Automatic annotation (TrEMBL), chain A:
Tree of life domain: Bacteria
Gene Ontology molecular functions: CoA-transferase activity
Alphabetical list of SUPFAM superfamilies matching this protein: NagB/RpiA/CoA transferase-like
InterPro entries: 3-oxoacid_CoA-transf_A, CoA_trans_fam_I, CoA_transf_BS, NagB/RpiA_transferase-like
Family: Belongs to the 3-oxoacid CoA-transferase subunit A family.
Protein name: 3-oxoadipate CoA-transferase
This protein's UniProt keywords: Transferase
SMART domains assigned: CoA_trans
TrEMBL record, chain B:
InterPro entries attached to this UniProt entry: 3-oxoacid_CoA-transf_B (IPR012791), CoA_trans_fam_I (IPR004165), CoA_transf_AS (IPR004164), NagB/RpiA_transferase-like (IPR037171)
Protein's name according to its UniProt entry: 3-oxoacid CoA-transferase subunit B
Family statement drawn from the similarity comment of this UniProt entry: Belongs to the 3-oxoacid CoA-transferase subunit B family.
SUPFAM superfamilies: NagB/RpiA/CoA transferase-like
Domain of life, source organism: Bacteria
GO MF annotations, alphabetized: CoA-transferase activity
Organism: Malikia spinosa
Length: 237, 214
């Protein structure tokens, strides 16, 4: 029998190793799996590489994880926000490494990892500073059918932490509105995917035509209470 | 000296909206481009895309009705129109990169006469870099339009021979909608589409420091 339901966040988070690459879903504050991030802080793994679109908002969630000093490197597209002071301070103090990736390349590098693609040529970033490696050497490029492309490699996660709306014991997931964002693609890109859901339903209760992430991409689901997503990422009046 | 009035932000948004066609799939960038949505002619159906996974984005919700699981790329709450859809990030950027979006409207620091775009970084030392979807938006849509003031606050032209700020994309901008004129970027340089009343052609070229063909 398959049962991917974890009794608690602590149980779901066990076994995350030091040095792990952790894919964290969410865009701004929508779809951020705050409960799992708190669980990761509790769990204590360190020397982490975190992949998220942003680099934390305010003092909670991802920002709180960064504050523990256990994140060595962040791979993201948009770290600087009105309320990203935790990251800003760490970055300015040279305490965190940043790999800046155009948002679409970030999504596609995750997709490539999940789909078993070894690398891909993308037009995004060609001729820009982001077509260079961290050491300044140029990334491989190619001229294909009259257009220029940059070679980008997949981003594989050891674990993905994502937030979904509802799931069943096989791990099938549906999401809520634009909180879906990186969740489905990150679920495919990690060796192990842990998802929070607000509702656990019986097998067959999610219409198979509506399943967004099929259970094969999900390792564990944990039920959490529904808390309304808070505003974040912009200047509030 | 010619005697002319600049387009206001609202007039500029209205000017851009005029060129968007019925049935277009459009991404309006963060900032000024967002205003364009307010001026789309009534009776016309334009599907707005937001890179965080929305097609059919509607206006801001009424106060008190905000749902922060339904936000735009600027993280502001929005609404969804009937017929709208949600999808994940890889699909969302496939819509851009794959050339499915008709028009992407972006702000800019600088645009070159041949359509190179600089809009993500001023290259300032010590600044924290952030790119978001700018590079994907610049190269992906069928047409990339820039919406900006033609001159900086110091009076320098933002349309240049070659961008001095870090590039977002090469030769990707098709049109520049500005407070003084609408210009087309071509491999041979700038072409005039229109300009505000009273602005002499020679004065426009003087302000730009670049030739503009008619």
């Amino acid at each position: 029998m398959i049962n991917k339901i974890s009794a608690s966040i602590a149980e779901a988070m066990s076994g995350i190793q030091d040095g792990a690459t952790v894919l964290v879903g969410g865009f701004g504050t929508a779809g951020i799996p705050n409960e799992l991030i708190d669980g990761l802080i509790e769990q204590g793994a360190r020397d982490l590489t975190v992949v998220n679109n942003n680099a934390g908002n305010g003092d909670t969630g991802l920002a709180a994880l960064l504050k523990t000093g256990r994140v060595r490197k962040i791979i993201c597209s948009f770290p600087r926000q009105a309320d990203s002071w935790v990251f800003d301070e760490l970055y300015r103090a040279g305490k965190i490494e940043l790999e800046l990736v155009p948002q679409g390349n970030l999504a596609e590098r995750l997709r490539a990892a999940g789909a078993g693609v070894g690398a891909f040529f993308t037009p995004t970033g060609f001729g820009t500073e982001l077509a260079r490696h961290a050491d300044g050497t140029p990334k491989e490029t190619r001229h294909i059918n009259g257009k220029d492309y940059v070679l980008e490699y997949p981003i594989h996660g050891d674990v993905a932490l994502i937030k979904a709306e509802a799931g069943d014991r096989w791990g099938n997931l549906i999401y809520r509105k634009a909180a879906r964002n990186f969740g489905p693609v990150m679920a495919t890109a990690a060796k192990r995917t842990i998802a929070t859901v607000h509702e656990i339903v019986e097998l067959g209760q999610i219409d198979p035509e509506h399943v967004v992430t099929p259970g094969i991409f999900v390792s564990q689901i944990v039920q959490i209470e529904r808390v309304a997503t808070q505003a974040g990422g912009f200047k509030q009046a | 000296m010619s005697n002319y009035t600049k387009r206001s932000k609202q007039e500029l948004a209205q000017r851009v909206a005029q060129d968007i066609f019925d049935g277009a799939y459009v991404n309006l960038g963060i900032g000024q481009p967002t205003l364009v949505a307010n001026y789309l002619p009534e009776g016309m159906e334009v599907v707005l895309h937001s890179e965080n996974g929305i097609l059919g984005m509607g206006a801001a919700p009424a106060a008190g009705a905000e749902d922060y699981d339904l936000i735009n790329a600027g993280k502001q709450p929005v609404t969804l129109l009937p017929g709208g859809a949600f999808f994940h990030h890889a699909d969302s950027f496939a819509m851009m990169r794959g050339g499915h979006l008709d028009i992407s409207v972006l702000g800019a620091f600088q645009v070159s006469a041949t359509g190179d775009l600089a809009n993500w970084s001023t290259g300032e030392a010590g600044a924290i870099p952030a790119v978001g979807g700018a590079m994907d938006l610049a190269v992906g849509a069928k047409q990339t339009w820039v919406m900006m003031d033609l001159l900086t606050k110091k009076g320098e032209s933002k349309v240049v021979q070659a961008c001095s700020y870090p590039l977002t994309g090469i030769g990707c901008v098709k049109r520049i909608y500005s407070d003084l004129a609408t210009l087309e970027c071509t491999p041979a340089g700038l072409k005039l589409i229109d300009k505000v009343d009273g602005l002499e052609h020679a004065e426009l070229e003087r302000l730009l420091g670049l030739p503009v063909s008619i």
